[in-house]
Amino acid sequence: MRTEKNVGGRDRLVRALFAAVLTVVAIGALRGGKRTTGVLAAAGALGFGFNAVTCFCGLNAVLGIDTTDE
To answer: Mean pLDDT per 10-residue run, the chain (70 residues)?
Structure first.
């Protein structure tokens, strides 16, 4: 499956930072026994990480947003 890139520049950097922050939150929550918060934060981290690595966001594609030219 080939997807067209629609995430770039600062948008990609911000998504990578969100992924890192949410990973730390997920680890802290899971260690603290807050299972629901940890799982949701981990899911968010995976989503933002995927967007940053692949330069593709499905929501951007649906909304017609392209930040690769920024």
So the answer is: 86 97 98 97 98 94 88
